[in-house]
């Protein structure tokens, strides 16, 4: 009888304690390229996106539980999709193998949220490094961006996701607007 009571008590305690350890929430990323055609690339190229962040978290909420949110999709796949949308909109032919290779390295992509009882603020930062190799020559350049979001009461996850989507879209648009880069690809 004591053994059964001990087993029931242990199971109950484990159930209570496991409820306290909440799993990180998923962040849904879905940036869309909407700037249209900015340049005329007219070249086939291969696109590769690599995640070189030291921390794979996309959102960090300070002083709360859960403190971190994990992306629900693979961030390199998401960034690759919006980059390929931009390249296609600018008449590039994205193919699995080409003489022109574009590699985008994600060095930073994170929103840090601080909140109190009456307000919240989200500071998002991103750093992408683009390298294009073509005919033995290489062009490399870094692109950074920030976005700030603030409001009353607690943060809204959907708004922080929107902030990150907008940041990704803006960085890809800056990449497409970079005349040095587009000239290098087009030559």
UniProtKB/TrEMBL annotation:
Pfam families assigned to the protein according to its UniProt record, in alphabetical order: Lipoprotein_16
Signal peptide: 1-21
InterPro entries: Uncharacterised_YajG
Taxonomic superkingdom: Bacteria
Keyword terms of this UniProt record: Lipoprotein, Signal
Protein's name in the database: YajG family lipoprotein
Naturally occurring in which organism (per UniProt): Pseudoalteromonas obscura
Organism classification: Bacteria, Pseudomonadati, Pseudomonadota, Gammaproteobacteria, Alteromonadales
């Amino acid at each position: 009888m004591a053994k059964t009571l001990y087993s029931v008590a242990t199971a109950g305690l484990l159930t209570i304690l496991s409820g306290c350890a909440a799993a990180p929430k998923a962040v849904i990323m879905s940036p869309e390229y909407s700037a249209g055609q900015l340049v005329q690339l007219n070249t086939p190229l291969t696109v590769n996106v690599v995640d070189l962040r030291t921390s794979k978290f996309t959102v960090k909420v300070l002083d709360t539980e859960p403190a971190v949110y994990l992306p629900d999709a693979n961030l390199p796949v998401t960034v690759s999709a919006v980059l390929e949308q931009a390249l296609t909109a600018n008449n590039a032919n994205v193919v699995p193998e080409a003489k022109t290779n574009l590699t985008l390295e994600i060095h930073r992509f994170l929103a840090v949220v601080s909140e109190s009882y009456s307000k919240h603020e989200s500071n998002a930062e991103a750093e992408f490094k683009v390298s294009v190799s073509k005919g033995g020559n290489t062009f490399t350049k870094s692109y950074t961006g920030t976005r700030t979001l603030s409001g009353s009461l607690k943060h809204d996850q959907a708004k922080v996701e929107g902030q990150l989507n907008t940041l990704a879209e803006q960085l890809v648009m800056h990449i497409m607007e970079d005349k040095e880069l587009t000239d290098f690809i087009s030559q």
